[in-house]
Prior knowledge:
By secondary structure, this protein is an alpha+beta fold. It has three domains: 7-120, Butyryl-Coa Dehydrogenase, subunit A, domain 1 (Orthogonal Bundle); 122-231, Beta Barrel (Butyryl-CoA Dehydrogenase, subunit A, domain 2), CATH 2.40.110; 232-380, Butyryl-CoA Dehydrogenase, subunit A, domain 3. The chain contains eleven helices and ten strands. Helix 1 runs parallel beside helix 4 (66-79) and helix 5 (81-101) packs antiparallel against helix 6. It starts with 6 loop residues before the first helix and ends with a helix.
Amino acid sequence: MNFDFTEDQLMIQQTAKEFAEAEIATTSMERDLKAEFPSDIIKKLGELGFLGMMVPPEFGGAGLDTISYVLAMIEISKADASVGVIMSVNNSLVCFGLEKYGSDYIKEKYLIPLAKGEKLGAFALSEPEAGSDATKQKTTADKDGDCYVLNGMKNWITNGHSADCFLVMATTDKEKGHHGISTILVEKGTPGFAHGKKEDKLGIRSSDTSSLTFENCRVPVKNLIWEEGKGFNFAMNTLNGGRIGIASQAIGIAEASFEAALKYSKERKAFGSHISSFQAIQFKLSDMAVKIDAAKALTFRAAAMKDAGKKYFKEAAMAKLYSSKIAVECALDAIQIHGGYGYVREYMVERYLRDAKITEIYEGTSEIQKMVIARALLDEN
Length: 381
Ligand code: CAA
């Protein structure tokens, strides 16, 4: 495996780092407190090409590889994991899915503005009774003339309030189980489509999450993505890439935790010396650094396999499983190193813990990642 990044990849990382430090990190605490959506930042991210990073330029994207995307996601999430998830959903779940499976009409009308960041996307799979057990979709889409008529409810939808376009998984043929699920693109403002209140969340508070309802919501048949009955496969295939995005988000949080802990340990004195001179602190810092590097190795491997056109779903699940676990551990260690200061808002590390927890839950819980990994292992051997 090649561990060297190209000049282009390093340039993307540097651009993301500079933007994150200058325009995202400085206001992250305030947005977290107010649970305020980062509209201006998202607009600028779009202008920089960070919302359609892997989409070819002819469809409005930056035409970059997944490695560059991971590098950028880490830097952005390090500054604010809320911005990270908004960026991840638009890139990995929405743009990737439309580029791979959308018709020419869909690409022209929706992918181009989504990849340019002129519009924002959301991915609507989860339902009140279909979270981890995602095949049990109750939302229906019945064909009526040249429209699908959608009825049902989705929940936990990232960008639920702010998105312009929603990729909705719905059952078009109940008899066929998960092979009767289809993906339909619904535009904000379509009659019969509404979103619920913003969820009041523990972490990633400045990204918005809400339920969606569909009541006799008529959507043109030409908004079908891929083919009827392919919606579950669409969701799984896009989520594989999504899991690389969330692994990167988790690494960003872990790095932010590590850097805060390292800095604090060199400033804080106790028993006559800096606490960084104590083995108890040094061991924690060492553990954090090793975990972060291991998470990066797993995540870059999955990204490189995706870029090489190889099957990467097991590797993406491994990257997400491990990176999300160590993000929580690193945030906890950072709090411990900060002592009482780690427990109050002023030092930010308490937010890292709140933000880290969700990475073990969304885009497939850690338990689901273990299922995916185990099934692949059993199939392979
Ligand atoms: N990649 C590609 N295909 C996959 C897959 C993967 N990782 N996992 C399953 N599949 C395919 C299978 O190959 C199978 O396809 P066919 O029937 O066409 O051959 C189909 O999916 C069904 O698979 P199973 O028979 O294994 O179904 P199951 O019910 O036993 O397990 C599951 C499915 C893996 C548990 C799946 O339901 C799952 O991944 N659940 C988690 C859902 C999830 O990640 N939700 C995240 C919500 S989106 C979100 O969080 C976004 C956000 O806003 C931040």
